[in-house]
């Protein structure tokens, strides 16, 4: 059973099976709050949904977090600060690990400069298909992300 879960986590980078026997799927939705994606100097080099942190998936934890992310002039994540989350503080460490791994590229045409970003990550669980999990996550992302 553990091997099947690990295999699924490696094979399905966008959505993962959180509970294979119950056939529940998970999804992660990234929302660019400030600057908007089209106004940003730095954008992630790989534009796909972030991976669901294994720590959260194994515990069946869903929720959201709003983070202030600082991208330095070299395109590296310098700082990740939790602004708010549900559940409170549980999402910070696993999400920070994911965000710190992101690589950034300058798409603005301007010289490299430090940029602060405000982003929201929604970690959603539930749904019997990948499509259903994405729909649930889109709905969750419309809700307030603070207690």
TrEMBL record:
SUPFAM superfamilies: TolA/TonB C-terminal domain. InterPro entries: TonB_C. Pfam families: TonB_C. Residues 1-22 form the signal peptide. Residues 37-132 form the TonB C-terminal domain. Keywords: Signal. This is Energy transducer TonB. It comes from Paraglaciecola mesophila. The lineage of its organism: Bacteria, Pseudomonadati, Pseudomonadota, Gammaproteobacteria, Alteromonadales.
